[in-house]
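Protein Entry — a single chain follows
Next Lines — sequence and tokenised fold
***
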Amino acid sequence: MKNVLIDTDVILDFFFDRKPFSDHAAKILALCESKVITGYITSVIISNVYYLLRQSAKHDKVVDKLKQLIAITEVLITDKETIIQALNAPFKDFEDALQNFSAEMKGDIDVIISRNVKDYKNSALGLMTPADFIKIIMTEQ
């Protein structure tokens, strides 16, 4: 499990220090920074995080935080084919469908890390909560 899609909720847990979830989110991002895993995000995540952070911080500060995030993660492509798949998929949440199919199109994403496991029940990819992922990755090292 070296290539992972990190869902929006995990990123927000980190940035907003949402306890108790922020500890696992910080560990996952630290694994990305140390290159133990390759963490992927989508442009949708960047946009949503910018919007939410901007409500409580100035543009320059938010941009700096996002630059730090993309320095330790990779950004998946969301193209027309991905959008069509997401529109036609049985996902209840369109954002999750976009992220899922962006990860599927990449072809080598091992797992989606999310606290919202029910939102990805129609995914062909593996799914783990941040806590479960941390437990497993620590036993592999």
User: Anything to note?
Assistant: The first helix runs from residue 8 to 15. The radius of gyration is 14 Å. The chain has a mean pLDDT of 95.
